[in-house]
Structures are given as structure tokens and as C-alpha cells.
């Protein structure tokens, strides 16, 4: 199917001021740790979009829990096809994995409870089930402390179980099931969904798509499931999935206390809702404003991003066209065309470079598997060896820019090779710092190399994390 482009127009043509969007972008650069992209739609039209270099429009981005809203959509479609109902008990789908004695609360757990994060568990089940060889059995054997439907706990394990149910019913993964029903009609061309070793898409995380794909999904929900004359999702499912299905007053931030639907969060602005993912991946739908805001980022704190949208954008949606060519329009266009994340601040040269260039520094065995590294400042290349599965070092190389981004691929501190953009600088006379954006993820790695005699003191850190680290990883390498 040919991808139909979303129309573009000036903000004023759709009743929002360029000045408001410029304020949002400017303040994001000043106060938000690392916004990667945004796209704002009004009346189904893109009025502003931007990517902070080295992030690009055509690159997919890791969504984390924003994936859950797509899992919800798959369940809604399966319900509409008569494959299940939300009242079906969970244990119906896993008879071989159920414990010998089924507790009343486990027996009462229905599909609706998995969707609304009200399974009755006291804690998120994800870590426990992902460490098990049989995650289905692991989920079902856990105590269910509360009556299902009475207690909210954010539970990615529940989303994974929904993905497994879809696969059991259809013989297809979530990705395969949704491709002809959702992704292809929306023009989402190359979605990728990470998969458990047992072949089930993770459901609660793992989907990778572009910023515009996120916006298309949000616009579909804003239009009650209709897209170019076709009803892709039943309107009743859209209404139920985005309504408040359970209270979540005990969550930590105001936009996480507005109630939870079926894998969608409610927001503070009246009638609004969103899918979101760790470190600032957002699909925000504002029905009263007839607007959609898609965002990707790499931020530890997510509430400030939403607050910025409420402060800068929400008050400035007008019911009619605004005067054309306002003073801020040209400024907004220039800013959006030149968005960039900062390269490391420092010097391009140091007297230390000539002394250490080409030297190979070897490390004792460490959890990162880093065997050795060297720098060549003529070719602007970091060469490193990582211990492979056979125990033998495998050589890799990474180009870096000085005062600019250079694209490449890296294995450093990643489970799989990742596309990266790398820039570096001498941040002190003896210290060379590389900043490495994993440009399809929220993550940025910083490598600080301090040269002391015949040693290099290597420090590795990330911009965001699920569990707060004690500090950066520190390794000492010896010149060989």
C-alpha cells in the first residue's frame, strides 16, 4: 500500500501560533535534558516538526512502554474478530502452565485486568517472569495479593501475557498480526518488535518506529479508529481503551495520577490521554484541541516534558485561522531547521594526543568485556577489542568527529551492534571525552579517557537508567 503523506501547513493556518511552538522548542532546549524529536498535528495536519541532530526523521526510535498502546490495539482487534472477550479468564489460555491449585484471585483474573494493570499483583511481575525459562508459568505461579480490578500496579508482565494470548489465538506474533490490520494501512513501513527467546513479542516494550509513525497512530485514535475512509479500530474500543478504567492516585507525578485505561494513561487536560515509554517517548492525544503531539527523547524525568507542553502549547490552540506570516514564523522555521544536540565542549587538540596516539591499552577482565583500546588521532578512530562468546578478543573500530557528529556502529556496552553518532573533545589537557548517541534509542554513552603516564583511566556512563548506578564504570588500562 502506498504511504499517504500527512498534509503540512503553517501553524497559523490551523489556529496555533508559531510563537507558542517556538517557545516550546526554545524552552525544551534550555530545560529538557535531551529531546530527540517532536511532531505536532492539528486538525490532522502537521504544523511543526523537528529532530535534534544527530537524530533523523527516517530513523526508528525505541519506544519502551509506548509499545503497550499498540498491544492494546491488537487485543481490541482480536475482540472485534470474535477471538476473545475482555471477560475471558487468563487461565483459560494457559492450561498447561497453570499451577495445581488456582487461588480465587488468580481464577478471577480476566483479560480486562491485564489491560488495565489491575491484575491484583502487589508488584510488577516483569523481572520475575523474564528470568524464568517459562515466563507463562512464572506469571501464573506468583501470589495475587489483591482481588483483580481493585488495585493498580504498573505491570509490564501483564502486557507480555497479552502478547502471548494474541499469538496463541492467531498463530502470529503481535507484529505479524498488526501488520495488515494497522501498520500497513497507517503507512508504517518497517516496524520492528523485539522478541523473547520463546518467539513472543514482548508486548510491554520492544516496538521501534519513527516519530511520524507515532503521530499517525495518535491521529488514528483521535479519529476514533478511522483512517482514510476505513474503520481500522472499532470506535468503541478506542473509547474504552482511553477511558479511565482504574484509579492510580498513588503514582508519583500528576500526569500519572489521572487514571489508567487499557494500556493508555489519562492526562490532566480535559479528555486527553497518551501512550508513553521510559525516558520520554510520547503519543499525546488532545481531543478537545483536535491535536496530537509525538515526542521521542532521552530524559530521566518525563513529567517536565508534559508540563512544558501544557505550559507552552495548550493555552494557544485557537478555534479559527490566525493571521498569516507573524513575526515568529521565520524564527521558528530557522530554529526547526537547525536543531542539534550539543557536541562535547572542549578543545580539538592537546599536546597529550601525540604521546598516546596509537598506543594500545589493555584491561584486566571486567564485566563489560573490554579487552583493549587505542586512539588514532590522524584517522579520528577509536579501536577496541571486546571479549567474544568464545573468550577471544574481537576487534572493532569507531570513528569520531571533533566538533561534529560522525555516524557509525558500536558494540561498546550494548547487547547488539547499534547505530551511533559520535563526537569528541579534549575536556582537559589529559582527558579525552567521547559522546556516543545511540540514535535509535534514548541512550547516550559517555566515555572519558584520562591518560596518566602509561595508563588510561576509562570512565563509562549513560544519560538515563532504570536503576540508579553507584557511579560511572571505572576501568584502568595499561599501555602494552
Task: Name some characteristics of this structure.
480 residues, Lipocalin, 11-stranded mixed β-sheet, 6-stranded antiparallel β-sheet, 22 strands, alpha+beta, Beta-lactamase
Characterization of the model:
This protein has two domains: 12-337, Beta-lactamase, CATH 3.40.710.10; 351-479, Lipocalin (Beta Barrel). The strands form four sheets. Strands 12, 13, 14, 15, 16, 17, 18, 19, 20, 21 and 22 form an eleven-stranded mixed beta sheet that branches. Strands 2-1-11-10-9-8 form a six-stranded antiparallel beta sheet, with helices on both faces. Strands 3-5-4 form a three-stranded antiparallel beta sheet. The chain has 480 residues and is α+β, with helices and mostly antiparallel strands. It has 13 helices and 22 strands.
- C-alpha Rg (nearest Å): 24 Å
Strand content: 25-35%
Low-confidence runs: none
Helix/strand/pairing class, anyone?
alpha+beta
Tertiary shape: globular
- Per CATH, what is the topology of the largest domain? Beta-lactamase
**Can you tell me the CATH class of the largest domain?**
Alpha Beta
State the distance separating the first and last CA atoms.
Answer: 58 Å
Mean model confidence by pLDDT: 96
The total of beta strands comes to: 22
Q: Specify the CATH architecture of the largest domain.
A: 3-Layer(aba) Sandwich
| Main beta sheet | 11 strands, mixed
How much helical structure, as a percent, in the residues?
Answer: 25-40%
In short:
The chain is an alpha+beta fold and 480 residues long. It is built from 13 helices and 22 strands.
Amino acid at each position: 500500500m502506498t504511504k499517504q503523506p500527512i498534509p503540512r501547513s503553517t501553524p497559523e493556518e490551523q489556529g496555533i501560533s508559531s510563537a507558542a511552538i517556538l517557545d516550546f522548542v526554545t524552552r525544551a532546549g534550555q530545560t529538557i535534558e535531551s529531546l530527540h524529536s517532536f511532531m505536532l498535528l492539528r486538525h490532522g495536519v502537521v504544523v511543526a516538526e523537528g529532530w535534534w541532530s544527530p537524530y533523523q526523521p527516517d530513523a526508528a526510535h525505541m519506544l519502551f512502554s509506548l509499545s503497550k498502546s499498540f498491544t492494546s490495539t491488537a487485543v481490541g482487534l482480536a475482540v472485534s474478530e470474535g477471538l476473545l472477550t475482555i471477560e475471558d479468564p487468563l487461565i483459560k489460555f494457559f492450561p498447561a502452565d497453570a499451577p495445581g491449585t488456582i487461588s480465587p484471585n488468580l481464577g478471577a483474573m480476566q483479560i480486562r485486568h491485564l489491560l488495565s494493570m489491575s491484575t491484583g499483583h502487589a508488584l510488577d511481575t516483569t523481572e520475575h517472569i523474564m528470568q524464568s525459562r517459562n515466563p507463562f508459568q512464572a506469571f501464573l505461579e506468583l501470589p495475587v495479593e489483591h482481588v483483580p480490578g481493585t488495585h493498580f500496579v504498573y505491570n509490564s508482565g501483564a502486557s507480555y501475557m497479552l502478547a502471548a494470548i494474541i499469538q496463541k489465538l492467531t498463530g502470529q506474533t503481535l507484529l505479524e498480526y498488526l501488520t495488515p490490520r494497522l501498520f500497513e494501512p497507517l503507512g508504517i513501513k518497517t516496524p520492528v518488535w523485539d522478541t523473547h527467546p520463546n518467539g513472543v513479542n514482548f508486548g510491554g516494550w520492544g516496538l521501534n518506529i519513527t516519530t511520524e509513525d507515532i503521530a499517525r497512530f495518535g491521529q488514528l485514535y483521535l479519529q476514533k479508529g478511522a483512517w482514510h475512509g476505513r474503520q481500522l479500530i472499532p470506535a468503541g474500543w478506542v473509547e474504552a481503551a482511553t477511558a479511565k478504567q482504574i484509579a492510580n492516585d498513588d503514582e508519583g507525578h500528576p500526569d500519572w495520577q489521572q487514571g489508567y485505561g487499557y494500556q493508555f494513561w489519562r492526562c490532566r487536560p480535559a479528555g486527553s490521554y497518551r501512550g508513553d515509554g521510559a525516558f520520554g517517548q510520547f503519543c499525546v492525544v488532545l481531543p478537545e484541541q483536535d491535536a496530537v503531539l509525538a515526542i521521542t527523547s532521552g530524559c530521566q524525568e518525563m513529567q517536565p516534558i508534559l508540563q512544558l507542553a501544557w505550559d507552552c502549547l495548550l493555552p494557544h490552540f485557537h478555534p479559527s485561522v490566525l493571521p498569516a506570516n507573524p513575526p515568529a514564523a521565520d524564527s521558528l522555521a530557522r530554529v526547526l531547521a537547525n536543531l542539534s544536540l550539543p557536541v562535547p565542549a572542549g578543545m580539538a587538540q592537546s599536546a597529550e594526543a601525540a604521546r598516546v596516539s596509537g598506543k594500545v591499552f589493555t584491561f584486566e577482565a571486567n564485566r563489560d568485556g573490554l579487552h583493549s583500546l587505542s586512539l588514532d588521532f590522524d584517522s579520528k578512530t577509536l579501536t577496541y577489542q571486546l571479549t567474544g562468546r568464545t573468550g577471544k578478543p574481537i576487534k572493532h573500530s569507531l570513528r569520531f568527529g571533533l566538533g561534529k557528529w560522525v555516524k557509525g556502529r558500536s558494540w561498546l556496552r550494548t547487547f547488539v551492534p547499534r547505530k551511533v553518532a559520535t563526537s569528541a573533545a579534549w575536556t582537559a589537557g589529559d582527558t579525552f571525552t567521547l559522546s556516543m548517541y545511540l540514535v535509535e534509542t534514548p541512550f547516550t554513552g559517555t566515555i572519558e579517557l584520562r591518560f596518566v603516564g602509561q595508563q588510561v583511566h576509562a570512565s563509562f556512563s549513560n544519560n538515563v537508567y532504570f536503576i540508579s548506578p553507584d557511579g560511572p564504570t571505572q576501568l584502568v588500562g595499561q599501555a602494552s
